[in-house]
From TrEMBL:
This is Phosphate-binding protein. Belongs to the PstS family. The lineage of its organism: Bacteria, Bacillati, Actinomycetota, Actinomycetes, Micrococcales. Gene3D superfamilies: Periplasmic binding protein-like II (3.40.190.10). It comes from Georgenia deserti. It comes from the Bacteria.
Length: 364
């Protein structure tokens, strides 16, 4: 993805985007002051950031925090040009961005903190199925979404669900019509966990055409709710009570999605190759055999600097990230009526706290 971003930057569309980003960065800088804390980035974090900002305003009414959900790429660019004090990104920074980050952070480093973990549910519409969760292995799930398995009572599905009353009806897979981190994470899971059953590389766009689709998670959820026989992947917060959800095969068991099971994948995953005490980036264990882990998740990172120009800026950013990573802050966005996020574990919270405590001002 880093190479693609570098190529896009050289295109005419990339240059137009760069101009827009620069203008927005100047606008954010123009409205910022010692009492302002502008941020920008991933739309996946928008609802959660709204909740976090509301929580911070109760504690720090003097601090004007904002978040512009312009997308991960634009958010990173705004942050690196100094137009925001923090950013949200669904992907870690690449090597070029990290080098730029040292200049932007006054000789310090960029923090990358996995503060937003969103389970991606595989939901289906089969009224009267008679099972709490349909059980599907990664390979079966891949064959369903490629269209190789065409009917709900296929022997492969029936073998994994002996107690389910599976109907003899067509399976209608549903995917996102727009580019999304949800699609990238779902296809990454299939690529790593399903083996040869999923012959496609991870991608923000669905890898083949001619399928049922919906725009945004809400669009996919709507297609699922109105079409019997459908199955699709969607942010867990969008799953209504009338839809069933898949328990995915992990090792010798089948694990339904839950906040706790989704958060556990972070703790069983290895650090990314260039991770550090400040960059808590992850190589997610999509093909884990660990019990009780739900591996289909989106992890979105919060970016910040380890050094800021003024002590007040450093204190303000430290206060925001401390609240976002706290048990109270994580539970606030875990509420189903807010963002349905999976709270980070105490182990990860301790690592985040250690990194956040290292934020300081140039003169410190």
């Amino acid at each position: 993805m880093a190479d693609e971003r570098n190529v896009n930057w050289l295109t005419r569309a990339g240059r137009r985007r760069a101009g827009l980003v620069a203008g927005l960065a100047l606008a954010l800088l123009g409205c910022s002051s010692s009492g302002s804390l502008p941020g920008a980035g991933a739309s996946s974090q928008e609802v959660a950031m709204t909740a976090w900002i509301a929580g911070m305003s109760e504690r720090r009414p003097d601090l004007n925090i904002s978040y512009d959900a312009v997308g991960s790429g634009a958010g990173r660019e705004i942050f690196l040009t100094g137009g925001s004090y923090f950013a949200g990104s669904d992907t870690p920074m690449d090597a070029t961005e990290l080098r730029q980050g040292r200049e932007r952070c006054f000789g310090g480093e960029v923090l990358e903190l996995p503060l937003f973990i969103s389970p991606i549910a595989v939901a289906y519409n089969l009224p009267g199925l008679g099972a709490d969760h349909l059980r599907l292995s990664p390979q079966t799930l891949a064959r369903v979404f490629t269209g190789e398995i065409e009917r709900w009572n296929d022997p492969e599905i029936a073998e994994q669900n002996p107690d389910a009353n599976l109907p003899d009806r067509e399976i209608v897979p549903v995917n996102r019509s727009d580019e999304s981190g949800t699609t990238e994470n779902f296809t990454e899971y299939l690529h790593e966990a399903a083996g040869e059953a999923w012959p496609h590389e991870p991608s923000e766009s669905w890898p083949f055409s001619g399928t049922q689709s919906g725009a945004q998670s809400s669009g996919v959820a709507q297609v699922l709710q109105t079409g019997e026989g459908t199955i699709g992947y969607v942010d867990a917060a969008q799953v209504s009570e009338d839809l069933g959800t898949v328990a995915v095969g992990v090792g010798e068991e089948y694990v339904p999605y839950s906040a706790e099971a989704a958060a556990r994948v972070v703790d069983v995953s290895e650090p990314a190759e260039d991770a550090s005490d400040l960059r808590l980036t992850l190589d997610l264990a999509r093909d884990t055999d660990e019990a009780g882990v739900y591996p289909i998740v989106l992890v979105s990172y919060t970016l910040a600097c380890s050094r800021y120009e003024s002590r007040q800026d450093a204190d303000n950013v430290r206060a925001l990230l401390t609240y976002m990573s706290s048990a109270e802050g994580q539970q606030r966005v875990a509420r189903p009526d807010v963002a349905g996020a999976a709270p980070i574990s105490e182990t990860m919270r301790e690592r985040v706290r250690t990194a956040v405590d290292r934020i300081q001002a140039v003169q410190d």
